[in-house]
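Hi support team,

I submitted a single chain yesterday and got back a structure, but I'm not sure I'm reading the token output correctly. Could someone confirm the output below corresponds to the sequence I sent? I've pasted both exactly as they appear in my results page.

Thanks,
R.
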Amino acid sequence: MKITLITDSTCDLQPELLSSLGVQFAPLKVLFKDKEYIDKIDLTNSEFYNLMRQSRELPTTSQVNPGEFYELFSQELSKGNQVIGIFLSSELSGTYGSAVVAKEMLGNEGIHLIDSRTVSFALGLIVLKLQEKINSGASIDEVLAMGNTLVARSQLYGMLDSLENLKKGGRLSSGTAMIGKMLNLKPIIEVQNGLVKVAEKARGSRKGLAWMVEQLSSHYPNGKIESIAIAHANNAEKLADIKQLLLERFDIGKIYEVEIGSVVGTHAGEGAVGITFYKTLD
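Hi R., thanks for writing in. Yes, this is the structure output for that exact sequence:
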């Protein structure tokens, strides 16, 4: 029996890549003042960052609704396939909850859902690993067990380039944002227990990148890493910087490079860069 993996557009893997792997995705939506866009379908990343740069107000985002999941799940079940759905953290969006509602509506035991407790390229890395496991011929139980392990070990750090989006979104006062800009502060966020939190405040990009590399080093003191993912929000130059730092310090089997899309980019802001890896657990 075939296993179909379904995720959502916040995994920030390009639709062409997901299609080539056989992974399906449900898109979230991005609403600017005058128009709604479907993430990854009718809004490219470059178009999004251009629109956001020109807008005085931040766009808003909306979750996938249960009806969309009902249709996706139904299509796969009708083919005799089992479904594994893994979506962005339920603490950050109602998308996972919508998938749960759709599963209950269908009342089918062939649907298995995972709350990734993370987002963006960290979710994307889990998706890639799970599809590899599926392709190896693993059973549904083996894939689910791996999924739960990866969720528990996943670690994401992201360095914001600007405080502008935090100010626009009302999470930071104009005065505080101005002081932060004067001091060249670069907040580093992490996803912890499904929520986004500030992990560090670095004075400048160079120190911020070095701090993220140090966190990776603490989990891989021998310098050998199977795979990681790095990402950028329309900031390929900074992505190249972090990649160089990583290659100078570690022996890495595979580095996946991802561009942060519209939904996550709305909150992280243009210029953000990040790294995700799997923690070593005690």
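A quick pointer for reading it: The mean pLDDT is 91. Let us know if anything else looks off.

Best,
Support desk
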